[in-house]
Amino acid sequence: MDSKVENGGVNGDDKGWSWGSSKPVPSIQEIVRNDSQSVPERYIQNQENRPLHSETSPVSSEIPIINLSLLDNGDENERKRLDSACKEWGFFQITNHGVTDKVLHKMKAAVTAFFDLPLVEKKKYAKAANDLQGYGQIYVVSDEQKLDWNDMILLMTLPTNCRNMKYWPTTIPGFKEAVEEYSIEMQTLTNQIFANLSLVMGMEKESLQKYHGEMIQSLRLNYYPTCSNPDLVIGISPHSDESSITLLLQDDDISGLQIKHEGEWVVVDPIPKAIVVNIGDAMEVWSNGMYKSIEHRVITNEKKARISIATFVVPNEEVEIGPLEAVVDDDHPRLYRTVKYADYIKHTVSTKQDGKAQTDYLKTHNV
Ligand code: OGA
Ligand code: NI
């Protein structure tokens, strides 16, 4: 069976993210469906990129947990904990966030239903050659490049006029409704987090939201098949997110996400119903490096396929991002230059994901 996912034509005048392109790659889910023992050459990472157990910390319990209902009640202490989490970890999990089990469950069910479709059905949503949205893969810039053990579909969700419905698998009952409900909930959480971060950065509550211009939200639905030899492959290569923040919903009972903390890879073990939040590159720049956009990766396992739903919040493409006045003074000189966000995205999607190389592009020369 042919596992190839060809680019679905050219996007033409369609709305969407035409900020870059990526080469078509096979569906790894389909390869594993046909032969669960297969680990094709293009997925076998070079020695130095393989996930070594010796570099992985056995404890994940230290990753901060933030109680969102306390933040909502204006709890000063919890706001300070949020500030420390962003400074020291760049990653935290939120609990008591008020998103119902039903909404989370429906979203996960929609993702599972999509990846369960036969390949021929999924291909109907294959991304256009000049678009980043749709089913396929991004950051594939050469035919020699090693591939991640991951299939995904990327959908723009907000503002609603950015949606390109040709990529939405609307034949799956409940898919559209699940994504719409989930997207609204993530927007609410985003604004709550921004309001609290604005206050700790010494600004008005609405400031961070305003700095985004018309905020853009996209969802990346990830599928990681089982792998007969997880030590040789990588689910997602080490990278930091280009977003301002990312909110991640992961499977309750399978871990895979790891973050770089003090030189070690730390596993982000799922806490049922919690949502993982991380600082992205745009926020690192705005905060002048006070908050860190942390390198992370995904590893695979032999036993169970894993899904995850990443919600990326990004500034409007016209927005210029640079260190905010509120955090720059004589003692804290500007560490990043100011760039148009669209230029940054165009730069990152034209390169293979490679740890923190992306934010180095944003740094001023004197660091
Ligand atoms: C991502 C990402 C982590 C995961 O999509 O950018 O880092 O656990 N995902 O799937
Ligand atoms: Ni990521």
Description:
This protein has 367 residues and is α+β, with helices and mostly antiparallel strands. The chain is built from ten helices and 15 strands. β9 and β10 (264-267) form a beta hairpin. The longest helix is centred in the middle third of the chain and has 26 residues, at 175-200. It is globular. The mean pLDDT is 91. The structure holds N-oxalylglycine and nickel (II) ion. Nickel (II) ion (NI) binds at residues 239, 241, 296.
Q: Determine the mean pLDDT.
A: 91
N- and C-termini, Cα separation: 52 Å
Record the strand order, biggest sheet: 2-3-11-8-13-6-5-4
Number of helices: 10
Structural class, by secondary structure, is alpha+beta
Radius of gyration computed on alpha carbons: 20 Å
Ligands in the model, by name, code or SMILES, are:
N-oxalylglycine, nickel (II) ion
Instruction: Summarize the main sheet.
Output: 8 strands, mixed
How would you describe the shape? globular
Low-confidence stretches: none
Helix content: 25-40%
Number of separate strands: 15
Strand content: 15-25%
Q: Element order, helices and strands?
A: HEEHHEHHEEHHEEEEEEHEEEEHH
